[in-house]
Amino acid sequence: MIEVDVHTGAQAIYQGQQQRDSVYQNYLEDTETLASLEARNAIATAYENNKTAIEAQAAGQKAINDYYAHHQRQNLEMLAADSAEIAYYHNVTDLRRFYFTVVSEHDGHVDVDNRRVGQRDHGGQHDAG
User: Fold this and answer.
1) Selection from 75, 69, 68, 73 nearest residue 30 by Cα
2) Fewer CB within 10 A of the terminal residue: the chain, N end or C end?
3) Envelope protein N-terminal domain: which residues (predicted)?
């Protein structure tokens, strides 16, 4: 059933987000240290390549910016993937609702979750069958 697929998929999205949140919290705790190490490595490499102090400082700042940009890009890609999957589930459930509405208007009988809905009377009411 589509409901089971949607529920299972949504649970997987939620569990993935919980896991990523945990990893991200650890990243936030360590990020200043790690970004600083990236900068130090870039500065050292710049000096080894006979760059000036200003060029070395710029290389260090670029390393910090690149470090944060990389993690932001990863987070956005994961969010985009989750959003696309959620949109898919939304579309599937909307199509299902649309299908049942069209069938209902066409012949007056719809089987939703094993409940049969009867034909419409002239007042637009449904009788349960």
Assistant:
1) 68
2) N
3) 3-102
